[in-house]
């Protein structure tokens, strides 16, 4: 276990990349993220909770079992890992990360990526040390990728059209209705109804009218 009490995000990230375990607990039963939260180092908590080792993604770039082809082409692993580990989860930010990489901004590439994200989500929920936060994040990004595919297939303005839809506010108060509906839809589609995190999100959002 490591203690990110100094509040240095870069050092925290370096330690994670070097193999520091995030789920090990200390003598009082707390993980590194819990200790960081306890002393108010919330930036470090964000880094820890968003960390996803590259080797876990690289697993999908090799054929498994009876598969003749890998589920994820090697060339997509880097761009996808960049999105997976981002701490800015605004949908426009994610679409911009897709748009800026020509390898990723194609229907077939996004289809492969979102299927891998769904597999990672499933693994996060079914492993011994369940990680609901990471599972929800993978599902959320998968939903955005699927919307990207729809815009690439159906709209002439493609991803620019998606970004415009996300940013457009309604006339009376500028509230981004499309963006709100997208986020709510992704939460509603999360396939693990028993998840504590999902239930908390639903309780918080359901009573609030758009």
TrEMBL record:
<dbReference type="InterPro" id="IPR052452">
    <property type="entry name" value="Ankyrin-MYND_dom_contain_2"/>
</dbReference>
<protein>
    <submittedName>
        <fullName>ANKY2 protein</fullName>
    </submittedName>
</protein>
<dbReference type="InterPro" id="IPR036770">
    <property type="entry name" value="Ankyrin_rpt-contain_sf"/>
</dbReference>
């Amino acid at each position: 276990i490591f203690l990110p009490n100094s509040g240095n995000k870069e050092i925290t990230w370096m330690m994670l990349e070097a193999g520091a375990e995030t789920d090990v607990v200390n003598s009082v039963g707390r993980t590194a993220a819990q200790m960081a939260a306890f002393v108010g180092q919330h930036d470090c908590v964000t880094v820890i909770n968003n960390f996803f080792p590259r080797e876990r993604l690289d697993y999908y770039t090799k054929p498994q079992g009876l598969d003749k082809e890998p589920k994820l082409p090697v060339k997509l692993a880097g761009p996808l890992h960049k999105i997976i580990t981002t701490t800015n989860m605004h949908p426009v930010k994610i679409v911009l990360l897709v748009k800026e990489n020509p390898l990723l901004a194609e229907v077939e590439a996004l289809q492969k990526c979102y299927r891998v994200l769904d597999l990672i989500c499933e693994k996060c929920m079914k492993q011994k040390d369940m990680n609901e936060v990471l599972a929800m994040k993978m599902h959320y990004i998968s939903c955005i990728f699927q919307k990207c595919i729809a815009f690439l297939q159906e709209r002439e303005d493609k991803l620019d059209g998606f970004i415009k839809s996300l940013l457009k506010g309604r006339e009376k108060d500028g509230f981004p209705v499309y963006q709100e509906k997208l986020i709510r839809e992704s939460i509603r589609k999360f396939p693990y109804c028993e998840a504590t995190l999902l239930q908390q999100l639903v309780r918080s959002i359901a009573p609030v009218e758009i």
